[in-house]
Amino acid sequence: MPMYNSDFISECFHSIETSGTPLPRLYGVGTERRVVPHSYEWDCLNRPDPHFIFQYSVSGEGEIYIDGVRHRLLPGDAFLIEVPGPYYYRLPNHSPHWEFKYVSLTTEFSFLWKKVILLAGRIIRLDESSDILHYWNVLFELLTTDPDQDKYLCSEYGYNFLIRLLRWAEQNSMNTSTLPAFPPSVLQCLELIKTSHHLNIGIEDLARSAQVSRGHLTRLFREYLNTTPQHYLIEARLKSAARMLSSSTLSVEQIAQRCGFSNGNYFAKVFRKWNGINPSEFRENQMTFTPIKQIQ
User: CATH 2.60.120.280: which residues of the chain?
Assistant: First the structure.
């Protein structure tokens, strides 16, 4: 339903949990436009009602802090977070407005959500013509026109949205050919990470390859990729490990060594910290998941 206020315009749909068998479901879908000087901010550590959020910037600029690191959110950027969690996002004072679309999902979709995060990361960049946003448009029109939806349809809508996210994540994981124009030093690092993340390399090796200082390389990554070289390298290793967990019978120790981690214990610790699930649990759950190629 539409909401109009002096500081924002909002139109949204939210599902309501009903009696009977609890199901994973679409929690909400909507769009908002926030403007200054009115404040708009969310400290996600203090938010009730656990759920997942996908939020896509349409126009203006927002910002989000992930583990204390600031990321600009420009048109085309989307973030994926869990609530409650160590995230804080807002309309910054220097931005006249921030318009965005969002989808929220219940935490029963946890396994699929974690797989998307593992492959895609917390911040992704999407074209308006993407299948994900096309489906958002379909959902938004359907649910704001006819909000009387039962829990089974809400479960189907949430699953279909996540499947589109997962397809995009699998197709774009580690794909540097579609990156925008970056400085040569950043491109050199991305190529090194893509081809050599399984080796014992670190920030010093990346800076040496790019022929810049560590500090300058970190500033470049934050400016162009909204992350740090260390985080990008760890994400590359975790994505590679996730693929091996899903498609091979190698032990956790063997996968750790093939993906650049010093040992299996350290790999499991990092994997769980970033994804909330250990490698063995990920592999067990993966065995019951229908491969994306079968859902076309």
Answer: 2-172
What is 134-196 written as a DSSP string? HHHHHHHHHHHH-----HHHHHHHHHHHHHHHHHHHHHHTT-GGG-----HHHHHHHHHHHHH
Contact 13, 28 (CB under 8 A): yes
Dist CA 195 CA 199 (whole Å): 9
Residues of the chain with CATH 1.10.10.60: 178-287
Mark 225-239 as b/e (b = at least 16 C-beta within 10 Å). bbbbbebbbbbbbbb
Q: Are 251 and 263 in contact (CB under 8 A)?
A: no
The predicted structure's pLDDT at residue 8: 47
Q: In whole angstroms, what is the distance from residue 174 CA to residue 233 CA?
A: 11
Identify the CATH number of the domain defined by range 2-172: 2.60.120.280
DSSP state, 294?
G
Contact by Cβ (8 Å): 98, 61:
yes
pLDDT value of residue 225? 76
Superfamily of 178-287 according to CATH? Homeodomain-like (1.10.10.60)
Torsion of CA 219, 236, 80, 49, to 10 degrees: -120
Bridge-based pairing of strands 51-60 and 62-66 is unpaired
Task: Please report the pLDDT score of residue 91 as a whole number.
Answer: 94
Consecutive 10-residue averages of pLDDT for the chain (296 residues): 45 64 88 85 88 96 85 94 92 93 94 84 90 95 88 92 92 57 82 89 92 92 83 89 86 93 93 85 62 29
Answer yes or no: are the C-beta atoms of 29 and 100 closer than 8 Å: no
Residue of 253, 289, 249 lying closest to 268 (CA atoms): 253
What pLDDT is attached to residue 295?
A: 27
pLDDT of residue 15: 64
Name the pTM for this structure. 0.62
